Amino acid sequence: MSLLLLGGTADGRRLAKKLHQQGVSLIYSVAGLVRQPDVPCEVISGGFSQFGGLVEYIKQHAIVAILDVTHPYAAKMSATAVDASKTCCIPCWRFHRPAWEKQAGDLWQEFISWETLLPALKDKKTVFLTAGQLEQQAIDALTANEQQRQLLRTAVEPKVTLSDSMHWIKAIGPFNLTDELALMKTHNVDALVSKNSGGESTVAKIQAARALGVPVYMLERPTLPKADEIFTDSASCERFVVSAFNNGLTINGRTGP
Questions:
Q1: Which stretches are annotated as coiled coil (predicted)?
Q2: Which neighbouring-strand residues pair with 68?
Q3: Using CA of residue 71, residue 72, residue 75, residue 77, what is the dihedral sign?
Q4: Is 104 exposed, middle or buried (0-12, 13-18, 19+ CB in 10 A)?
Q5: In this structure, which long-range contacts are made by residues 115-120, counting pairs with CB atoms below 8 Å and at least 24 apart in sequence?
Q6: pLDDT digits (tens, 9 = 90+) for 55-95
Q7: pTM
Q8: Residue 97 pLDDT greater than 60, yes or no
């Protein structure tokens, strides 16, 4: 009987290691787009379609609970996890790190979608895009402005066609403030586009924008279906999961370790 931890984040890797150390049997799932995680447990990579879907995987591997520690913007996976848990009558728990909060000196504008955000960038000269992979439609809308340059930073090569005005930077966090300041100054960045990911790994770009007076165009977090338990503190999440397994988590007549 195992916990299925949906990972792909630094938080997921840390929780996997801590839970394993305390005797929780778990399987770690990762999309496998960037790098394989260094975790002391079984790892599955590439999603669940290879197993016939998440529901089938849960049934085949005696999963007694799901812990969703995916990226806060992985809305499709989080929704799938909740739906599958209901179908299989097992709990779905979620840990997402707290969002960044606006501080003195921050010049933030918040948007619910790319469609509402893109028009706000039309008068900018150099836009620094740090919001992950973009759809071709968003790329085309950005690069239609012949007076603008864009920097696109992602961990893996874009799957879309980039125009001559867009420069791709391959990089994986964590990032530090000195480097982020240098990058923005070198390229005369006058707009930063970001998701509100939270955490320490990529917060330096927000700090650099604050220091340089660069406005931040922030995509708000998506609204997710309610999980059975939701945590924003990793220590509380860890204690809860360990307690649940130590006290004989029982789902559909099956008892956890």
A1: none
A2: 6, 94
A3: positive
A4: exposed
A5: 117/193, 117/217, 117/219, 118/142, 120/217
A6: 999 999 999 999 999 999 999 999 999 999 999 999 999 99
A7: 0.88
A8: yes
